[in-house]
Each structure stands twice: as C-alpha cells, then as structure tokens.
Amino acid sequence: MNANSWQLFSTFGFFIILLFACGAYCLVVTRNMIRAIIGIELLIKAVTLLIILAGKITGRTSLAQGLVMTIIVIEVVIAATAAGIALWVFRHTDSLDVRSLRSLKG
Amino acid sequence: MPSLMILIPLFGVIILNLVFASNDKMKRAAFWFALALFISQIAVAIFHHPIFWNNSLKPLDSFFKVSFFVDHLSFIMFICIGMVSIASLFVAKYTITEEGGRFKFINLLILASLGMSGIIMVKDIFSLYVFMEITAVSSFLLIAYPKSLESLEGAFKYLILSAVATVLMLSAIGILLLASGGTSFFAIASGIAEARNSSLIVFAIGLFICGLFIKGGLVPFHGWLPDAYTAAPASVSVLLAGVVTKAAGIYTMIRIVTSLFPYNQPVNNVLMLVGTISIFVGAIVAIGQDNFKRMLAYSSISQMGYIILGLGTGTGLGIAGAVFHLFNHSVFKSLLFVNSAAVEKETGTCDMNKLGGISQKMPVTGATSVIAFLSTCGIPPLSGFWSKIIIVIALWQTSHYAYACLAVLASIITLAYFLSMQRRVFFGKLRSGLEGLKEADRGVLAVSIILAAITIGVGVFFPFFFNIFILPVKEILVR
Asked: What are the phi and psi torsion angles at A97 (to 5°)?
C-alpha cells in the first residue's frame, strides 16, 4: 500500500466504521421492527462502501462495480421481504414492537 | 452441463407462473414438474456420469455468464437436496389442502432448491453469497406464508439473524478482496497463502466463520433455529432441518475451511470447541422440551455439532465422517420431521403432554420414528452408528481423546431425550380423545418407509456405500 491509498483507506475506513457502528447500535437498541430493518440496511451500506474501497485500492473497479450492483439488488429483496413480514405483524397486533413477538419460547 | 441444474428450475418456475397459474387444474402440474425435477437431480447425481458433468454447453454458459464445478461432495449434497425436497413435496401435498397455497409452496421450494444447487457448485465466494441469499429469502417466505403470528415471528427472527450473518460474510468478502484482489476461491486461497499471518486476514476468517455459524445454527448463534423450525409449516420444517441449514451453513463451512482458509490449528480448535458445545447444549436443552418439533430442532443443533467436530479434526477420515453424518442426518432428521408432520396433521397438536400411545393408531409412523431415533443415537446396524464411529475414530487418531469421549457420552443424552419423546408420543396408553385417529395418507407413509429403508440400507451395506460415495470426498483435502 502506498501513501496515497493509505490515506484513501483511512478516510474511507473512518466512515465505514461510523456507518457500521450506527447500524449495529440501531439494531441493538431499537424495539421497533422498521428501525431494525433500517439498522440492517445501514450495516449493508457500510459493507458496500468497504467493497468499493477494496475495488479502488486493488485497482479492480469493474469487479467491485459488479459486486456492488448485485449487493444493492439483493439488499432490496431482503428489505422488501422484511417489510412485508412487519406489515403482517402489524395487521395481527396493531403494533410494530418486537416485544409483541414473544409466543415462541423454550 | 452442471449449469442445467440451475437453468432448468429457474425457467421451470418462470414458465409455471406464466402459463400454469391460470386455473386450479393446471396448477396441479406444478407438483409433477417438481417431482420430475428432483428425481432427475438425484439420478444424475447418483450415476455422476462424466458425459453430463464434464461437458459444458458453451453457448448457454457464455450467454448466462455462469461457470460451475462439481466434485464428490457436491454429488452427495445433490442427493440430499433432491431427497429432502421430495419428502417436503409429499408432506405439502398432504398438509396443504388449498390448491393455490400449494402452488406457491412448490414454486418457493423449487427456488430454494435452486439456490442450494448453486451453493454447492460455485467456485467464487461472491456467487456463493448470491445463492445463499436466494435460499435464505425463499426460506423466509416459506416460513412466513401461513401468515399466523407465530410463523411471522419465526420468519422475522430468522431474517434478522440471517441478515447479520450476511453482513459478517460480506465484510469478510470485502476484506479478502482487499487482500487478494479477487473473489474466486483460487485467487483468495493464493492471496491468503501469501499473507498468512496478517491480522486483517485473521479478522476476515473470523468474521466469515461467525457468519457461517449463524447460518448453520450452532450453539452460541442458535437463537433463531428452534423458533424458525417450530413456527414453520410442517413441510417447511422438513426442508429447513433436512437441507437448508446444512447447505447454507455446514456444507459451506466444509468447502471454505478445506479449500480457502489455511487448514490450521486455531481454526480446527475453534471448530471442535463450538462442535462440542453445540452437541451438549443442544442435547441437554432438548430433554426439557414439551413441543415435538422444538425437541427435534434442538436435536438438530446437537447433530450439527457432530458434523463440525468431525470437520475440526482436519484429517481425511474426519471429513469423510462429517460428510457421512451430514448425509445420514438429513435422512433421519427429515424422516422424524415427516413423522411429526403426520402427527401434527392427524391430532392437531405438537404438544407432547397432549399426545400419547398413538403408535396403536399410527403403526407405520411409530415404527419408522423408532428407526430414525435409534439411528440418531448411533445404535449399531443403522447408518447413524457408522458415521458417529468414524468421527470418533478420527478424533482418536488425532489424539483428541477428551473430545472423543465427550462425543460418545453425548449419544447417551441423545438416547435419553428420544426415549422420552417416543414414550410420550408413540408408546404407552392411548390418550383419551384420540380414539378416532387415522394413519397418515399413503404418499407420506411411502416417504417415511423409503427414508427408513435408506437409513437401514446405508447401515447394513455400509462398506459399499462408504467406499463408493463417501471416501472419494477426501480428495477435497489434496487441492
């Protein structure tokens, strides 16, 4: 790694870790299903940024582009599925609180 | 022509939805299409003729930009996937009465099996992630589709934990891309070999293995598994317990650990430790369960521990034992789940306190379940005995005596909870209110009998089966 890419790495690294921390905090603290989905989205965004950075530093930007496009598509599918499940939970319980999901234990 | 294993189901699903979704009579064709698909998948995997597997359809492959490879481990997984999918298909025919719901189920089942076929044929870590997500999303939908609050809860828990696993694995992929400049197994393996002790690589390996532990439901990360298995509809539980967690978690672990990461002592130690903890926690928690399916789910965790323990030895014999146990487990655990589906459908409950003595009314279900649980505990002529003893021998050869003793000891706990299950559900006096009980329908009984026959057959003709199918698996170590 030369000086230029090291600078790139540290700048990007800061924001990747920031996004990651935001997402993880959101996922751990929240009791709302929609916010949990947003937390997951933030985490995936951090990873997407990491892959862009990796592509830039190793000089394989076209590969990284392909990967990022695929990740975005899959992320949308997951978010849509999760939102669908949250919607049905809301129809059952009239709340989005994860504490309403406590029937399975043991 | 390995790409056909992906393309035929994919276009099959599209055609089914474009052409056959119009009326109920046409929808019935979906069942026969899926059945033919899975049977042909098993057939080409059993005979593994090089004409089919080694030739590639150039125009098709270059058009879809796919390239796959198969080896003996993939063949065993193909057989598992086909077999369990057929079992799940028959259970769905029996438990889902509404034609539209069954049609949706079959579509999602084909998509899930497509995803798993992809997982076992890829040679690129990113495609692995893509196929894993296909499998995972179809499983979320399969768990959630009765839309009851319980099934939604199971699906949501699975979704969140699976998304976390995905994030961990993608971070590992990003770091490995940074370190090696590629995503194919070959590029990553050579990149890792160059920078073996870099802390970044060790971090990436840790992240990836954690992600796979979540996907496979091993003990520190098992929170979603019992809920998802219990809440899912009966036919989906068969599929999830039979192959989904194995293809997404355990198979990937075997592939990644042997061909990608340096096969070194720290990784092995972690695998063996997690395996042993899973065996014990799964078995001990299973003793206290009142729900039939939940007990089977914990038993599943415990048996996954054996597979990881065998993998952790790092020798050819250990890996062969792990793969053999994987195959056996997918046979007898799907048999137990098929039986639990029959019990749930006929009596309307899975609570073991409300069941009892139903072996008198459902003799075939009771008898096949005895065979399955004896095989799980490792009673000699049955298949589970051989795979467990191979794992124990491999542990002994690598002088892990404590782990070997613990693995044998855990079999006794397995016997304990299964005897209690058998006693409370099938044996004893018939509980009042269950006098009008009928045996399950013929399709499900045929599936149970065939799976039980495979369990017995593999056990009795063990040398033949082991030499032809399992021992060639060792060659994945040589690469």
From this structure: -75, 130
